[in-house]
Amino acid sequence: VAVLGDLGRSPRMQYHALSLARHGRGVDLLGYLRESTLLGSCNIHTRSFCHFAVGPKLFQYVVKVIVQAIQLLYTMLNIDKPSYILLQNPPGLPAIAVAWVACLFWRSKLIIDWHNYGYTIMSLNHGKNHPLVQIAKWYEKVFGRLSDYNLCVTNAMKEDLWVNCNIKAVTLYDKPASYFKETPLELQHRLYMKLAKDYEPFKPRTEAVSSNAQRSAFTEMDEKNGHMIKTRGRPALLISSTSWTEDEDFSVLLKALEDYERCINEGAELPSLVCVITGKGPLKDYYNGLINKLHFKHIQICTPWLEAEDYPLLLGSADLGVCLHKSSSGLDLPMKVVDMFGCCLPVCAIYFDCLHELVKHDENGLIFRDSNELAEQLKMLFLGFPTLEGKLHSFRKNLRASKQLRWDESWDQTVLPLLEQNE
Predict the structure, then answer these.
(1) Per the database record, which ranges form the Glycosyl transferase family domain (predicted)?
(2) Please, which of 215, 352, 356, 376 could form a disulfide with 204 given CB 3.0 to 4.6 Å?
(3) Which positions of the chain have pLDDT values less than 50?
């Protein structure tokens, strides 16, 4: 199982490895190991590449492709003979060609898991007509046809692969792992108390009557019976996660929050907000600069990097998720929304072509097109918060009732038969 990217940010490939190991298969997982992963199986052997970057950008890119090709081929030829090589695309340059050569050497089958197109991601930086983008587009189409089997993340991508690339694929939707679920109140409280040590928005708004009282901004201990309760007049907890890249414009959320703040100042019955944006990436400093220029009275924003085990707990504790992922190709779906739905967390998500395959407008969340629409949705959803009535509650009820398929079940239905028919 190979990805020319950070394994810690490649949950789908981790899930593939875990599913294969669960069925008794030995797995070599190849990639960059910059963050600790969620893996824990004696059948999985992780092999990490060295990261190389020096010199001007174009030189860096050329050298990176050459170094990656050598590293990947060397590693693939020095593992036990695989029956299959399962490769993530993107990034596919040079990975697809190298994996194909390794498959020829080992007489193995090549499976490509299409998450998106690499050339559409490159076009965000360079423009559609840049020579590098055109080369990448040709490369993906030509070398993508060398695979034996193909998986993809949406039916829209399945159709596009067939129509434009003559590649036949099977749709394997991203599904949440079993640990993405609603967080019990006791665990919520522990998480808030932990985060309050480092992040101001999680600290209680007022001093406790008793010095022994355990309080966060959202929860406190009922001193009569020792149970955790939600704090009266608590703020609403809004969460978004991002890799801080060009395909997510966080100024949309910031403008919506400015509108929300203005409405509170004008007397609207809306709760204060704590807005948590998690993740790491190249544009984080830029957006933190914009956030620092905002002077809200009723909204607090923080941008933490959470430990792997804390992220599902925070999703399962939040009141609303916001997704600003705009697919570069219009053909992939945001995994962060999949995880939010696993936690029965309603979502507001920005529109793109195939989003309807995941977010059902007015059923499990809302779809918006700009900051004005998002601001109106936030005001409508949080009016009268935290009463149980209203859209937020009905969305959560619908998510609970939907009995969503989890990754293990989906993988067993889709990928396992494909492997077994060729043995």
Answers:
(1) 234-379
(2) 215
(3) 36, 209, 211
